[in-house]
Amino acid sequence: MSIKLYVYSNTSDRRRPVKELELIDEKDVELKGDVDVQSPVLILTGDAATYARANYIYIPAFRRYYFAEFTALQGGMIEARCRRDVLSSTWAHGLQNCTAIIARQEEEFNLLLNDGTFQAYANDQVVTKEFTGGFSTPAYVLVVAG
Amino acid sequence: MAYGQLLEVRGEDRDVVFASVPQYWDGLLSQPKFKVTDAGEVIFSYDAPWNADGTELLFWNLLEAQGSYNYNTGRGCVELNHLDASGAKNLRFVLKNGTQIICQGTSPQCQIISPLGVTIAQGNPLAAPGTYVNYLYCIIDYANLEAIIGYYYLDPRFDGSESRYGGWNIVGNLDTSQTARQNLYNALYGNEPVQDPYLPGGTSTTGGGSNATWDDTSDTISVPGAPALNLTLNHFISAYVPSLTDVNNLANFVWGNYDKTDSSKVLSKILANPSDAIVSLHMLPYTPDSSTAIEVTIGQYGTSVSMPPMTSQFKDIDCGSVTISPYWDNYLDYTATHIILFLPYVGEVTLDVNEVMGQTVSVLYRVDNLTGAFVCFVSTSDKILGQYNGCCALSVPVSSADYRGLNQAILNAAAAAVGGVMTAAGAGAALATGAAEGAIGSLNLAAGGISAAANVAQSKVHHSRSGALGGAAGFLGSQTPYVIIHRARQCLPEGLNKRAGYPAMITKRLGDLHGFTSVSSIIMDGLAYTDAELSELAEILKEGIII
To answer: What is the pLDDT of residue B439?
Structure first.
């Protein structure tokens, strides 16, 4: 079975569903045996210099992106040990259309919700505000019989 | 038949038969029939055919030794003892509590011998005198018998092997134990567990949500108007608003016109004591309303001393207002803010942050000029937050008795105030008005590894700053109300929202969001991935992603 794969250099945080990818190589790969779709191990032709910055693979046939670790083998071969990037894979195939209850968000939030994520300094701010009026000039009051 | 063998219920009529046919019954012409009714009655009947010469039942040979009955303590025994064709037929029931019900019958009837009060419905076929009764049919109603509860089953036991010529015995044990009852119930209705003892209290149901009114309207509670009465108008007393000079002039008059040895001194004639002329003399921390000065009269006698008369009994002292504005405009204004209001002649009171944040708080004292008693109204534009009473009069003693009473009152007030000084609120207690549970630092944020912060706000101890400040003590204190606002100061790392976000609790499509996002709950429809992948994805989304 022949599949196409793309080898990338990924410089984005792993938490980003859409990553900044630089194409390193693309291959047509002949699968010669059983392949674990979740964590494939592939032997590719290539040189270490080319693959020095490679850390990411996309296999369209498997509908998945992978974090990859490349090992240079003898004889001009590169071993790619892949582990699924489930976030990017699913984002590209439907996750962004899912509706969720958002616990925390960078741009859409409600500050009146109790947020225990940041600390308070031990010394409180103390302010005093005086009312605009009060008691003033005292006076006698005399009550007599009759 | 084996002892204790469970009965089997057959047929729509619920004929109760033994689970296995005893060997003794093989070949019998008939077998006893037992039925169990809904009321828990056990009805048994037996056709007992006699042999040709009427001397022996063609039935079975099992029996008990004559005259003895081997039954366990606590087990009921049903015994049908037929002696001979013409003899008495005894039907004896021995109940769990040992009560024996003995029925003795002669053909064709039987009747209860003992105990009295037990009802036995009995029915025997009518037979001509001299003929043999071929069955004895008896219904025992156990409803009135204390030992019998619920269902029960017959546990026939046949002991002994001695046959008895001319008669037959059927021995059955009436087991009224709960276990027996349950076994019979199971036989009748299938395996049902012992009734849940909580069942009589009812089981859970769905409910709620259908009677909500969603009424968040609020009535305005305004400061009431002053009472219309004016006690200064009665002729038993007269009230004035004198100056110090006026007071001294009157004192000179009183002392100068009291001499019991001088008949011209008018006050001596009407007063036992010169100070009796003065009902009260006190100072108020404001000037009551008064009119043009008139001559002061004591009793019916003019004093030639003029003072402005008091024109109204009550006076409002408007202390103005303070606006409590949000400082952070976030949850810190409510959960980590503590507001204390100091009121002259009262002391400090705590304001509920939820009631005053963003509101203008007003303070108004309504004072009774005659006594100095007041009610202090603390209010916002639409409601009264609190009403506090006290006394703002500083009594001026005009006699030694007055002084002693005044001094004691001051001492009493000071003693009552001791407990109010420096009272530590304790963790969380003082913040009941401002800090809800889960204040600063109480939540863990998994994303980014930010750990839970110390709950600084709730651990603060808030101190009382005053005791009871009524009367004379109040004159020495602050005469203007003020608020003290304690706010927590946030320690906010720059870019926290980009790395950890802020609380949202909204429902959104993920593709419509930007930036850091962590998910509380999601339905992942339309994703053709493995269960393991989706589980991993759910965890990733909860920790947070950057869209």
So the answer is: 30
